[in-house]
């Protein structure tokens, strides 16, 4: 049973047309209106599932605000509306966030109908052990700004997930190589759920050579999964941290020297405390 005055945010397949839920098909077959990024693309999906009665409106990044006002009027009148994009989940590197925000601000329900998402799909098949990830989406198109963004992400201790278009894939991986060095691991997931689906993992240098060696691997839509930065071993004290602790121990009580060293150096306080005990013991025995 559909709710009136409600916006349904409906995820659609990212490639294989069978990757759509029964609930999504039920909603799309019953709502009063479907707002689609490109109507023709979405009509093809519904036709494949024998849904031909839907009423449509086009909602994309260039008209979202104007069309949102029309949709709000329909919701005020008791109608139900579904939002879909060309592929995947609306509002995730796709139009939809403006509409959802306006609808919620007006007090209408926004009901998610979950389904395919390229980033999660790629993660599930990559075999990455780190349970933490940051989804960035599309990087800037220009190399200079892209490198600055990548540099800001350089020390993140989680998998970094990016989307990329085929005409920028080579220069994007080249910039990653320049910023992160040759050894960080990169998984490329290309054309997920489609005929030429490819999932390939290697070092940044290896992946760049792999792309350059086969122009066919440069085609399609890409998800890039970059391995996390290595977390410094907190069980080891840096030379600077050791030097700071040694100087402070000469002037202050042990606990105060440890506390100040931790604040100054960022070193682990427990490890510093053990080192301080060792240094005191060495002084006593000497």
Description of the structure:
The chain is α/β, with parallel strands linked by helices. It has three domains: 6-116, 3-Layer(aba) Sandwich (Cobalt-precorrin-4 Transmethylase, domain 1), CATH 3.40.1010.10; 119-226, 2-Layer Sandwich (Methyltransferase, Cobalt-precorrin-4 Transmethylase, Domain 2); 239-285. It is built from eleven helices and ten strands. The protein has helices at 22-30, 39-48, 64-76, 97-105, 118-126, 143-152, 169-180, 204-213, 239-249, 254-265, 269-285, and strands spanning 6-10, 33-36, 56-58, 81-84, 109-113, 133-138, 159-164, 185-190, 198-203, 222-226. The strands form two sheets. It has a five-stranded parallel β-sheet with strand order 3-2-4-1-5, with helices on both faces. It has a five-stranded mixed β-sheet with strand order 6-7-10-8-9. The longest helix is centred in the last third of the chain and has 17 residues, at 269-285. The N and C termini lie far apart (83 Å). The relative contact order is 0.11.
Distance between the termini: 83 Å
Overall mean pLDDT: 94
In CATH's first tier, which class of the largest domain applies? Alpha Beta
- The ordered string of helix (H) and strand (E) elements is EHEHEHEHEHEHEHEEHEHHH
Number of domains: 3
The main sheet orders its strands as 3-2-4-1-5
């Amino acid at each position: 049973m559909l709710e009136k005055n409600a916006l349904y945010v409906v995820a659609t397949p990212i490639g294989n047309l069978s990757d759509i839920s029964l609930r999504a098909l039920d909603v799309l077959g019953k709502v009063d209106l479907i707002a689609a990024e490109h109507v023709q693309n979405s009509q093809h999906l519904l036709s494949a599932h024998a849904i031909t009665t839907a009423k449509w409106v086009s909602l994309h990044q260039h008209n979202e605000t104007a069309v949102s006002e029309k949709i709000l009027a329909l919701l005020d009148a008791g109608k139900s509306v579904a939002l879909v994009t060309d592929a995947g989940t609306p509002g995730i590197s796709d139009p939809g966030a403006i509409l959802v925000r306006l609808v919620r601000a007006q007090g209408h329900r926004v009901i998610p109908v979950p389904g395919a998402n390229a980033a999660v799909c790629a993660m599930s098949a990559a075999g990455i052990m780190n349970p933490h990830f940051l989804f960035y989406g599309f990087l800037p198109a220009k190399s200079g700004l892209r490198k600055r963004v990548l540099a800001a992400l350089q020390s993140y201790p989680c998998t970094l997930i990016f989307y990329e278009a085929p005409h920028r894939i080579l220069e994007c991986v080249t910039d990653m190589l320049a910023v992160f060095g040759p050894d960080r691991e990169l998984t490329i997931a290309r054309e997920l759920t489609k005929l030429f689906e490819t999932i390939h993992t290697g070092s940044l240098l290896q992946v760049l050579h792999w792309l350059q060696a086969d122009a066919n691997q440069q085609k399609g839509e890409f998800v890039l999964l970059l391995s996390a930065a290595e977390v410094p071993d907190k069980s080891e004290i840096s030379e600077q941290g050791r030097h700071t602790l040694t100087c402070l121990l000469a002037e202050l009580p042990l606990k105060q020297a440890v506390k100040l060293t931790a604040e100054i150096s960022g070193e682990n306080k427990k490890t510093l405390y053990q080192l301080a005990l060792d240094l005191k013991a060495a002084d006593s025995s000497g």
